[in-house]
Amino acid sequence: MKIISIEKNQKVSSVCTVLLDNNISFSLPKKRIELLELKEGSSLSEETLNYILDTEVYAAARSAAVSFLAMKLRSSWEVSQRLFDMGYEEVVVERVIESLREIGYIDDLDYSRKYISEKTKLKPKASRLLAMELSRRGIPENIIETALDECALDESRLALELLRKRYSRFTYFDDKLIQKMKAFLTGRGFSYSQVSKAISSFLPEE
């Protein structure tokens, strides 16, 4: 088998894709390719190719995943997408994700708990909006539900606190301002009944 091309990954410049004349391809960091002395036109034995696919590629993908996780907590989907962007095949990505799950480096439930806690402190919003955000990060519905149940958000209290923080400086509340308050809470994912209740509790008695 011969290497017919070694091309730089378009999304991650430190990684290259090696293409063989039998249409097999694999991705590795550029530095690793140089250390293995892989060059266009050079030949690979079946034994060498199997070693690269089973050991080198997996080790490189796992190392990339660990480095990605070191920056901040990520969901399994986010890690998978990063590895796909680097050119790693699905079978390699799945193997890496599973190995990191086994040692606790990837834990979607823990990720969801911490995501909800952090967002509630920094930018409070309703459960349904948090659920949508977690879903976009590839978290399964059952894990989202478990995390939200465990966090037990008091959405009525959150909505009222948001109004107090944003509108306490006002002393007069006309229809225009009340509409802004409604839009503000709706934008944070609160339901019509939650918005109405929070505004009713917040507005001074006439």
UniProtKB/TrEMBL annotation:
Q: Where is the RecX third three-helical domain?
A: 157-199
* Residue ranges occupied by any RecX first three-helical domain in the UniProt entry: 61-100
Extract the InterPro entries matched here.
RecX_HTH_1st (IPR053926), RecX_HTH_2nd (IPR053924), RecX_HTH_3rd (IPR053925), Regulatory_RecX (IPR003783), WH-like_DNA-bd_sf (IPR036388)
Cellular-component GO terms for this entry: cytoplasm
One annotated GO biological process: regulation of DNA repair
Q: Which UniProt keywords apply?
A: Cytoplasm
| UniProt-listed Gene3D superfamilies | Winged helix-like DNA-binding domain superfamily/Winged helix DNA-binding domain
In this protein, which residues make up the domain named RecX second three-helical?
Answer: 107-148
Superkingdom in the source lineage: Bacteria
Localization of this protein? Cytoplasm
Q: Which family does it belong to?
A: Belongs to the RecX family.
User: What does it do?
Assistant: Modulates RecA activity.
Q: What is this protein called?
A: Regulatory protein RecX
